[in-house]
């Protein structure tokens, strides 16, 4: 029949009914509801005991006592039989949280119905049950179980008596009556269990109750049939007892085999359930938004682990499961408890003072209070447990947590080898899951955070900012740029620049507080989200950030001066309705940053800024088509020799007449084209157009060179010299009639990479010129190595020659330096006669500027040459153009 000792019938079905299941996390105390459940169960115990005594008295009065003194031994023999039957009990898990013990008490009960009076069987059953409870120290449920014992035997004899009267043989107990009475006893136990479930306000499905009652009847029928058949066979044929014994042992072996098979199935289901729970919670972790700075822990909800612990408790039929998890590497263990309440003192992470928290290895330890050393015994007593299974959760010799299972809910046995094996396997799964989740948390952190500053990166900022932007109609996105970063990198190296960035990140975090989303986007650019913020507060925060970031940075024994610019954009209710995304806001804030000028270091975005960038975007996308349609043309600005005034060549300058925007300044579209990677297309177009013009001049008998500006990207293209050589060959132009101009800053940006390409171009006979000389880094060491032929004095110095003695000295120095290096010196921006005369007096070789001519289209250049120059033949019979005075 179902388990009636220790756990009681209700305990066998629902777990420990005398103490309601309690799930607790961290510090909790017994709830009022738990105390009310305890009180209800005590009242229910009194009712069961009272009902059992009353029923026993009624049945005893109905069935008179008939007993022979010569049969005194039947009572003790039945008591021993009940004890032995229970010792051979087989515990079977019906489903999660429901256990069912198959015992053989139906065998002595059915025999007792046939050979002994009611009082003897009742006394044998009650004495055997109470003795077992006391031996197992299960004192809290003795009265309930005593009442259950009384009702089991009473109901069995009552039904058997009714069947006997119905069969017309009330003086004797027919075998059919004994069988019916025996089947009544387990059903009575089941009814008591269902009533206990209702008393404790637990739920149990009707289908589960019906299936359980059906199994109880089947097993009870088999056990009763074996007992009844054995009694009848032995009573008729005494020498047949070995066969009866063999059948009984075979039935017991069959039960044990079924129990082991079902236990393995249940263990596999439990492992699968636990693995799925961990996998689902891991998927939830992966889908959570990026956390705060430094948030690399397990990122788990302790409620999830309470659910996992509940499943382990159900499978082990334990009174309590304690999970101690280390969520952060340096934090104490967090405690999760399901089942019986854990004493407050046992919740604390006492480290080395608790032997269960410092178990070596990763194997399961089975600890019993009767066999443990004093330290372990004290630890178990502190937990209020008589036995425990404890297993550390480790990964690479690092403690991730501990699983403890306390006191198995069984009257006959504690935790067995199957429980140890199951908990060990589950612990291995949990340790792997914890390690994987920690790795996942680390990968998520790295994916959404900047490794240098620890702040969010662009993807992390995008994810964190999405929810507040949806929630608050008015929010602000700021973009902050440190404009000293590249200078520090070049002067002191990237190590010190990185230290500046880390210091800037700390300053911003201290200014904004820990809860404001802050990200390093790239380089020295940062982004901030101010949720539920208006423009006035955004301006204040932006000014405060700029002030903090512009303070000097101590680098070693230096104080590096810095400057910061801030651009911000405020969302409106209309934009919120359109679900403005983070990237769009960052782009607008970036536009505001680029619009900062001079002393205006903080600027708010206005829609007109977007029009500027939209215009640039349109120009970039239309550039190829513009070349094909003839919108992009080449103009030429003449260069003359000093003092002879011969026209030596022209500089090719690109112009764009846009059908929508009109004439577009090269300073606007050339950087955009270069940034879009189309500078190769532009350079090829200008080269082809210029060389075609030189070819036609050669056909006219004129040797006029052309100068073409190059980009730094051309110097990074190893195939560029070969393409230039192919163009020279295609148009039949000598290399000396082509000059390629490079800005000083472009050459010095990566001289080691540019040097081989420049040498290849020089080998083609091409003239190389350093443009805007004096405005860049001016490294004489590299200038001597470069195969350049000309230096061009920047027009800013030429403009200031007449009023600024410093500019005059710079121009004189460049002329002298160029001549000392054997270079031709070209002066740009010559617009006045005084400047031309001073340059000529200094010995400058070539002049170029508005004094001579503005950049002209090809047709106007031809007219200019015809109107302002005279042609003469030199000794080589080649035409030379001389500027008319």
Automatic annotation (TrEMBL):
GO molecular function: cyclic-guanylate-specific phosphodiesterase activity
Biased composition (Basic and acidic residues): 19-31
Start and end residues of each GGDEF domain: 473-607
Coiled coil: none
Lineage of the species this protein comes from: Bacteria, Bacillati, Actinomycetota, Actinomycetes, Pseudonocardiales
Name used for this protein in its record: Diguanylate cyclase (GGDEF) domain-containing protein
PROSITE patterns: EAL, GGDEF
Transmembrane stretches, start-end: 41-63, 70-90, 110-135, 142-163, 175-200, 212-234
Claim: Transmembrane helix is one of the keywords in the record: yes
Annotated source species: Saccharomonospora glauca K62
Keyword vocabulary terms for this entry: Membrane, Transmembrane, Transmembrane helix
Domain of life: Bacteria
Disordered: annotated span: 1-31
Keyword Secreted appears in the UniProt entry: no
InterPro entries given in the database record: Cyclic-di-GMP_PDE-like, EAL_dom, EAL_sf, GAF, GAF-like_dom_sf, GGDEF_dom, Nucleotide_cyclase, Rev_trsase/Diguanyl_cyclase
Record domain EAL: where: 616-869
SUPFAM superfamilies according to UniProt: EAL domain-like, GAF domain-like, Nucleotide cyclase
